[in-house]
Amino acid sequence: MNNKEYFENKTILVTGGTGSFGETVVKRLLGFSPKKIIVFSRDEKKQFDMANKFRDEKIKFVIGDVRDASRLNYIMKGIDLIFHAAALKQVPNCEFFPMEAILTNSIGAYNVVSTAVHHDVERVVILSTDKAVYPINVMGMTKALMERIMIAEAREKRGKTILCGTRYGNVMYTRGSVIPYFIDLMKANKPLTVTNKDMTRFMMSVEESVDLVLYALTDGQNGAVYVKKAPAATIGNLAQALKEIFSYKVDIKEIGIRPGEKQHEVLVSKEESFRTEDKGDYYKINPEVPNMDMKQYYFKGDDHNSALPADGYTSANTQQLNIEETKNLLLSLPEIQAELKNFKN
């Protein structure tokens, strides 16, 4: 579907709209002639900075928290489309404050989805993560619950709203991610600390993550979760690539895997692979037991051939980037190019 045509004259809500994803998607949406973009978040300083950066009358900034269903109900009237990006994303913070993660990532998502359905919003896309597959940390567990909440609401079909989701891995150079952390260590002339050099992670730019959610919002089907095909790199290769790009001489230090970390991430589980369709640049994960009531759940299964390897789609079996390929990918990022101009050993 043509993005410009689809978003023209629409009112769009972006929860968590002051984050790295939010800023990028707002910039992209402004090129599609929307009627209005509502940026909803609880960080007044980031809203102030973003307003000064864009200076566009089509953007409306609203202070609020997805935990507050009444606040969502207040702003939801007249909304056509929703990108739900608000979340607690830092694994350590979620581990130490699990109830906060539950309130934002799971209950907050329920508030967004149920309020959208109540107001007959046209489409909602929720943003999930590879950590929601076989979750071993609180962040992943609460995101997995968010996905199930969306799927359950989609199955009920209580209104006209189409609900779907996206899942992606490491989005390069977003706030709090490993690449800017490594660069900060280099600026401080400290070793690059990695938990395990052989650990693999999917690599995706924030622009590619926006492509994914735009695809889901325009073409997504009710209850489905969409995954962008992406290469992966070892953490060791990533750190070494950055060292070579910045001609950094201090060593890489391996500190061991921390609680809540996986050796490899998974975007599509082996159980999901049997209901996954190949859509070219994307995978579409169809919902479990679609259109089925609870009685059928106990007696009826489904049988499909998988488009994926037997162990699903993981950062270990996708395309693996060597150091030179990782360097080329990093150098394509405008943030890395900007850092190179100012970097001093």
Can you offer a commentary on this structure?
The protein is α/β, with parallel strands linked by helices and 345 residues long. The protein has a domain of 234 residues: 3-Layer(aba) Sandwich (Rossmann fold), CATH 3.40.50. It contains 13 helices and 16 strands. The strands form four sheets. The protein has a nine-stranded mixed beta sheet with strand order 3-2-1-4-5-6-10-15-14, with helices on both faces. A three-stranded mixed beta sheet has the order 7-9-11. Helix 6 runs parallel beside helix 7 and helix 10 packs across helix 12. The longest helix is centred in the N-terminal third of the chain and has 21 residues. It is globular.
Short summary of the structure?
This protein has 13 helices and 16 strands. By secondary structure, it is an alpha/beta fold.
